[in-house]
Design goal:
CATH architecture: 3-Layer(aba) Sandwich
CATH class: Alpha Beta
Number of strands: 8
Number of domains: 1
Order of helices and strands: EHEHHHEHEHEEEHHEH
Mean pLDDT: 94
CATH superfamily: P-loop containing nucleotide triphosphate hydrolases
Number of helices: 9
Bound molecules: adenosine monophosphate
Strand content: 5-15%
Shape: globular
Length: 225
């Protein structure tokens, strides 16, 4: 399967789309935010620095993210198509990523941009709840994604929690960083002719359908589970 890079503002639905593609097509989902949260949870000096930066919504230094990503990409499951969620986030990271791909003999694949208005992001971010047990994603403000009980996972009964950076102050920071540093990537990949745009304002099923249409048009032979 073709490798996918997702570019979008925080809360636009990268994580949800990735989970849907993973469930339906066995795509491997690599979120640099998750890789960094895992590193942060170690609680050592580096972990604490990462945690502080993530909580404030600041970008973690390139060398730290690239090292975590390169290590993950070398695992066996990344040989059959993966989704990169949250990387690259700057043109500098795009260049670093090309070097990593060359070293590991992997393809860039295609880039999908999820378009959404800022007003919608606020509800998506402040209403987002995650499951400690199975990583399922919910939104208490969205009928399609609301859990039956605000604090408990429908799928595994695990406890739901809110990310430390899912608040208005951090969102403002993350959104401004997106506009300033990540949006230039859209031109960068447009010029390489491998960029596709998806309207992610109409809900998760509609977003998935648009991505499937792109993959089908590309003639990608994705095997359903
Ligand atoms: P995310 O889970 O993608 O919303 O990312 C959460 C936070 O992790 C970001 O606000 C950054 O602090 C950090 N992060 C994730 N990916 C990157 C990246 N590619 N470069 C730098 N920092 C990142």
């Amino acid at each position: 399967m073709i490798n996918l890079i997702l570019i979008a503002a925080p809360g636009a639905g990268k994580g949800t789309l990735s989970k849907d593609l993973k469930e339906k097509y066995n795509y491997v989902h690599i979120s640099t935010g998750d890789l960094l949260r895992e590193a942060a949870s170690k609680g050592d000096e580096l972990g604490n620095t990462i945690h502080d930066m993530q909580t404030k919504g600041e970008l973690v230094p390139d060398e730290i993210v690239a090292a975590a990503l390169k290590q993950r990409l070398q695992e066996e499951d990344c040989n059959n198509g993966y989704i990169l969620d949250g990387y690259p986030r700057t043109v500098a990271q795009a260049t670093i990523y090309e070097e990593i791909l060359q070293q590991l003999h992997k393809d860039l694949g295609i880039v999908i941009v999820l378009d959404i208005e800022k007003e919608q992001l606020i509800k998506r971010i402040t209403g987002r709840r995650l499951c400690h047990g199975c990583d399922a994603i919910y939104n208490i403000y969205n009928e399609e994604m609301a859990p039956k009980n605000d604090n408990i996972c429908d799928k595994c009964g695990g406890e739901l929690y809110q990310r430390s950076d899912d608040n208005l102050e951090s969102l403002e920071n993350r959104y401004n960083t997106y506009l300033e540093k990540t949006q230039p990537l859209i031109d960068y990949y447009s010029n390489k002719n491998n960029l596709y745009r998806v309207d992610s304002s109409r809900g998760k099923d509609d977003t998935l359908k648009q991505v499937e249409d792109i993959l089908n048009k590309l003639g990608d032979s994705v095997d359903k589970n």
